[in-house]
C-alpha cells in the first residue's frame, strides 16, 4: 500500500502495512523524482540487501543503516548505536579497567574506557562506564559508576578528548533509569532520572546541566511523568518536545525549558495515549524541526533474542505517530512490522531514518517467511513548506555532501541554514 492510499489522523491509517512480495516483484526498485511527488508519496522501494549494497546512497541516505545486531544496554544504548559509530570489541584485558560485570556493556565500555577515559580515572577512582546517556554530533555524555555513586563524563569525539565529569549522584542508577538529550547548540544537557531500582527516588525528576561549566543549572520535578523528550533543532536550547503521562491522560507537549511551560499541547490525546499493549520507545524531530516522530512498539514480555530459528515468532507491530513541530497536532500514523525483540534490540531496527536533505523518511519492514524478499525498505516524501529557501536547501543537499557545504562561497548564515543549525534563541 502506497502513501496515496493512506488516510490522515482521525481514521486508522498505514503507509507500510499490507506490503508483500508481489508488490515488490512488480516494483523491485521503485524510484521517483522529487518534483513528481506529493507529501507521503512512496519515492523509493528496494530490499534491505540492495539498500545496504548502495541504494541508500542513491536515495539520499548515505551510510544510513536500518538494521543492527547489537543489544541495547549491552552493545548499544538508546541514543548511540555501535554500528553507526564503528565501535568494535577490542577485548583488552588491561588492569586499569574496573569492569564488575564484563558480560554487560562490555563492548561499549571497553571502547570508551580504553580510548577516551583517562587511565588515572579508571585505576585510582575506580570509575567504569555503564552506558551512553546521549550523543549529539561531536559530544558524548557517558554514565560513569563507582560503588554506590553515579556521575556523568563528557567526551569530544572530534578532538578525541575527555572534557571532565559532572552531575554526581549519591546513588548508582541503572542505565535504564536515565534518559538524556543534548541541545542543538551543544551547550546544555537535559537528563531525566526515574525510579527503576530500590535505591532511586520515588518520583522522576530532570536536571539541566551547562556542558561548558559542568554546573547544574536547574532541577525540575514536573507534575506528570516524562516518558521521552527531545530538543527542537530550530532553537538553540530552549524548547523540547515532551511525551507525558498524567492523571488527565497522555499526550505530547512542546515546552519552554527555562520556565517549563507548555507553548503547545496535543489536543487529541486519544491518538498518543499509550495502550496497555504498546510502549513508547523513541521520540525525535525531523532535521528541520517541522515534525515530531513518536515510535511505539507493541509490548511483549517475552524475549526473542535467543531464538534458534529466525522469524519463528510473530513480528512486532511498530507504529510511528507524526506530529506538527509547531502545534503538536498529530498528522499521520505509519504502521509496519519487524521481527525484533522489543526489549533488547537496538532502536535502529525500528526508528525512522531521515535523508541528508531532510525531505525524506525511510522505514523498513520485515515480510513473512517464504517471501521473495526478507525485508523491504520504503522511502516517503515528507510534507514541505511553500518556501523557496527550503527548496533551495533540499536541492543543494541532494547535490553536495554536508562536509563540502562549508566550503561553498556563501555567507555563514546561509551555510548554517543548509546544515540545519538552530535559527532561534
In brief, what are we looking at here?
This protein is of the alpha+beta class and 425 residues long.
Topology:
Blueprint: H1 21-26, E1 30-31, E2 42-47, H2 48-58, H3 82-85, H4 106-115, H5 119-123, E3 128-136, E4 139-146, E5 149-156, E6 161-169, E7 178-182, E8 188-193, E9 205-210, E10 215-220, E11 225-231, E12 239-246, E13 249-256, E14 261-265, E15 278-285, E16 291-298, E17 316-324, E18 330-338, E19 353-354, E20 360-366, E21 375-381, H6 388-399, H7 402-405, H8 412-418
Antiparallel strand pairs: 1-2, 2-21, 3-4, 4-5, 5-6, 7-8, 8-9, 9-10, 11-12, 12-13, 13-14, 15-16, 16-17, 17-18, 19-20, 20-21
Description:
With 425 residues, the protein is an alpha+beta fold. The protein has helices at 21-26, 48-58, 82-85, 106-115, 119-123, 388-399, 402-405, 412-418; strands spanning 30-31, 42-47, 128-136, 139-146, 149-156, 161-169, 178-182, 188-193, 205-210, 215-220, 225-231, 239-246, 249-256, 261-265, 278-285, 291-298, 316-324, 330-338, 353-354, 360-366, 375-381. The strands form 5 sheets. A 5-stranded antiparallel beta sheet has the order 1-2-21-20-19. A 4-stranded antiparallel beta sheet has the order 3-4-5-6, with helices on one face. Strands 7-8-9-10 form a 4-stranded antiparallel beta sheet, with no helix packed on it. The longest helix has 12 residues, at 388-399. The chain starts with 20 loop residues before the first helix and ends in a 7-residue tail after the last helix.
Amino acid at each position: 500500500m502506497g502513501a496515496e492510499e493512506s488516510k490522515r489522523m482521525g481514521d486508522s491509517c498505514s503507509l507500510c502495512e499490507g506490503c508483500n512480495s508481489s508488490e515488490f516483484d512488480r516494483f523491485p526498485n521503485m524510484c521517483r523524482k522529487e518534483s513528481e511527488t506529493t507529501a507521503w508519496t512512496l519515492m523509493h522501494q528496494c530490499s534491505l540487501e540492495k539498500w545496504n549494497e548502495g541504494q541508500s546512497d542513491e536515495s539520499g541516505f548515505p551510510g544510513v543503516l536500518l538494521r543492527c545486531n547489537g543489544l541495547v544496554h549491552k552493545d548499544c544504548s538508546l541514543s548511540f548505536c555501535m554500528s553507526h559509530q564503528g565501535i568494535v570489541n577490542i577485548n583488552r584485558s588491561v588492569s586499569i579497567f574496573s569492569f564488575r560485570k564484563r558480560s554487560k556493556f562490555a563492548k561499549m565500555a571497553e571502547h570508551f574506557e580504553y580510548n577516551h577515559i583517562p587511565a588515572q580515572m579508571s585505576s585510582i577512582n575506580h570509575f567504569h562506564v555503564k552506558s551512553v546517556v546521549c550523543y549529539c554530533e561531536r559530544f558524548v555524555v557517558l554514565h560513569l559508576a563507582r560503588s554506590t555513586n553515579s556521575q556523568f563524563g563528557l567526551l569530544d569525539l572530534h578532538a578525541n578528548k575527555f572534557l571532565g565529569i559532572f552531575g554526581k549522584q549519591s546513588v548508582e542508577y541503572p542505565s535504564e533509569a536515565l534518559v538524556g538529550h543534548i541541545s542543538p547548540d551543544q551547550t546544555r544537557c537535559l537528563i531525566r532520572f526515574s525510579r527503576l531500582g530500590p535505591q532511586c527516588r520515588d518520583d522522576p525528576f530532570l536536571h539541566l546541566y551547562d556542558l561548558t561549566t559542568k554546573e547544574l543549572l536547574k532541577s525540575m520535578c514536573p507534575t506528570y511523568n516524562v516518558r521521552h523528550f527531545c530538543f527542537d533543532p530550530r532553537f538553540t536550547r530552549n524548547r523540547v518536545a515532551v511525551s507525558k503521562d498524567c492523571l488527565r491522560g497522555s499526550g505530547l507537549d512542546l515546552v519552554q525549558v527555562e520556565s517549563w511551560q507548555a507553548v503547545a499541547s496535543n489536543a487529541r490525546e486519544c491518538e498518543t495515549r499509550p495502550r496497555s499493549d504498546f510502549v513508547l520507545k523513541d521520540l525525535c524531530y525531523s532535521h528541520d524541526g517541522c515534525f515530531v516522530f513518536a515510535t511505539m512498539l507493541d509490548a511483549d514480555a517475552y524475549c526473542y533474542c535467543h531464538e534458534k530459528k529466525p522469524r519463528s515468532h510473530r513480528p512486532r507491530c511498530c507504529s510511528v505517530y507524526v506530529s506538527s513541530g509547531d502545534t503538536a497536532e498529530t498528522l499521520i500514523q505509519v504502521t509496519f512490522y519487524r521481527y525484533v525483540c522489543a526489549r533488547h534490540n537496538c532502536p535502529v531496527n525500528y526508528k525512522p531514518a531521515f535523508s541528508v536533505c531532510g525531505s525524506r523518511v525511510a522505514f523498513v519492514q520485515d515480510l513473512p517467511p517464504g517471501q521473495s524478499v526478507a525485508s523491504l525498505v520504503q522511502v516517503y516524501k515528507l510534507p514541505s513548506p511553500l518556501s523557496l529557501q527550503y527548496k533551495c536547501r533540499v536541492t543543494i543537499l541532494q547535490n553536495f555532501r554536508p562536509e563540502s557545504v562549508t566550503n561553498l562561497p556563501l555567507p555563514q548564515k546561509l551555510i548554517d541554514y543548509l546544515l540545519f543549525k538552530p535559527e532561534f534563541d
